[in-house]
Amino acid sequence: MWCYVLLFSLLWIVVWFFRDRQMLSSFKDKYVFITGCDSGFGNLLAKRLDKKGFRVLAGCLTQKGADNLQRAVRPACAPS
User: Fold this and answer.
1) Contact at 8 Å (CB) between 58 and 34?
2) Is 38 in contact with 63 (CB distance < 8 Å)?
3) Which segment of the chain is annotated as a signal peptide (predicted)?
4) I need a surface site. Which of 16, 21, 61, 67 has the fewest CB within 10 A?
């Protein structure tokens, strides 16, 4: 019984290790969709990812929130 638990644990650690080592080759070709970008966490995340070069699709509830976000980010960020 303990042998199976030990084997499963070792396999889990190996899989976790290799999964964490994977990196994106280029995030410039990736899109991120964020909802709730009018204010708060969604707004801050959209601005931060935009500065890092991600292409951000930001979902805003109000037109005022979309306008405020549009002024704060580069043109590649698309609030809607």
Assistant:
1) yes
2) no
3) 1-17
4) 21
